[in-house]
Amino acid sequence: MPGMRRHPLVLLDYSGIVSQTRPHFLPSAMLSLVSLILETMALSVVMLFVLSSVTCEENSGTREWFRANILAVAALLGYAGRGMLPDVLSIEAANLLFMAAISMMLAGFRRYEGKTFPTKLLAGGMAVVMAVILVFHYGVDLPGVRVITVSIFHGGVCFAIGMTVRRMIPASQPHYPFLFTVVAAFALAFGYAVRAVHYMLLPNLAVPLFASTVWNTVYFSLGTLAFPGLTLGAVMMTNARSLAKAAYAADHDHLTGACSRRAFFQLAEREHMRKLRTGGDLSVLLFDADHFKAINDSFGHAVGDQVLAEIVKCTQKVIRNIDVCARLGGEEFAVLLPGADAGTAISVAERLRAALEGAVLATSANASVTCTVSIGSATLQPQETLAALLVRADRALYAAKSAGRNRAMCAEDVRRIEVGT
């Protein structure tokens, strides 16, 4: 229209929308822009409902991501009101809210990682950006400079998000939620960088805002997907952590941290099948805490629980990383020893017995609480079933207890004794 100023194109935070006399009607290009902004806002609202359904745990980042989307919705309302709201709301306030929103997203990922949030650094960056926006809006009206400045800030925060999540990619549990978030964050950072460079190369730092160009389409499309994409990645990461915790809880004893009975038998069966298929040795230890009932009766169940936990800690120090310690129930424990022959198994059993014999496992009313163990060991024989192996280990354990406790016996010795008698 004659007499109207041409406006620069905008990406993601829509900060390049410049001051103008409010029109009495909205041209089709403006309606298209408002539609994209409202679509982004609608997606952010959807993400708010998704986040509200996610369990809020300590150090999960969920609260920060929820607040980030609230801030984003408020900012997008300001952008959508351009031409109808005062400039201070649709430019300054909207950009401040959007910078706070992306910063809050970073805070959520940092909390998820268990790290502190660089509040002073981000607050200082936001103050600098706001100063530039004010100078190049009310001083010298150069929307291109504003776009470049805001793009650098948002690009830097997105890059920080990508680097933060990249450090958290797990080696064992499903890592696709983390990879998705890393790719989304780095893609946004790259988009902001391209946008900043694009504006730097423009003559007079300005082009028509609503021109139907490929760049406009790309920028607006990326802007629409920014917050929903990062939030979706955050939700997937949270669900992955919840599933990992649930799996750990199912496979580990809550009191001692040792493997659960179910997990032990699953691992033992898997190792048993592998040994039958490829050959090699496999041994198992079964052991009980001696006179454990007397500890409970004398010192209480709290002390008894502490003794059980300390037994597991001591066991973990004695065995190898590839070995598996499990609590089968009560004061009964088991250790799976892949690749260990009979001599190695009884040697490990004796080291474990000696370590526990000399350890103070708990204290109560200034009294030291000690506990010995009786251990039975057995080594897999050709074509032997897992059940048969465990029966022989259990018989060796019973023989150790019958012989006076605080000792280790192997199934082979027990068999020789039985044959001799």
Key terms:
421 residues, alpha+beta, Rhopdopsin 7-helix transmembrane proteins, Alpha-Beta Plaits, 2 domains, 5-stranded mixed β-sheet, two-stranded antiparallel sheet, 13 helices, 7 strands, 9% strand, disordered N terminus
Structure commentary:
- One of its GO terms (molecular function) is diguanylate cyclase activity.
- It is an enzyme of class 2 (transferase).
- The chain crosses the membrane at residues 29-53, 65-82, 88-109, 121-139, 145-164, 176-194, 214-235.
- Its EC number is 2.7.7.65.
- The chain is built from 13 helices and seven strands.
- It has helices at 28-52, 62-80, 87-113, 119-139, 143-166, 176-200, 214-251, 261-278, 292-299, 301-318, 342-357, 386-402, 411-420; strands at 282-289, 324-329, 332-338, 362-364, 367-369, 373-379, 408-410.
- It has two domains: 28-250, Rhopdopsin 7-helix transmembrane proteins (Up-down Bundle), CATH 1.20.1070; 261-420, Alpha-Beta Plaits.
- 63% of the residues lie in helices and 9% in strands.
- The strands form two sheets. Strands 2-3-1-6-7 form a five-stranded mixed sheet, sandwiched between helices.
- With 421 residues, the protein is α+β, with helices and mostly antiparallel strands.
- The termini are far apart.
- The protein is elongated and about 100 Å long.
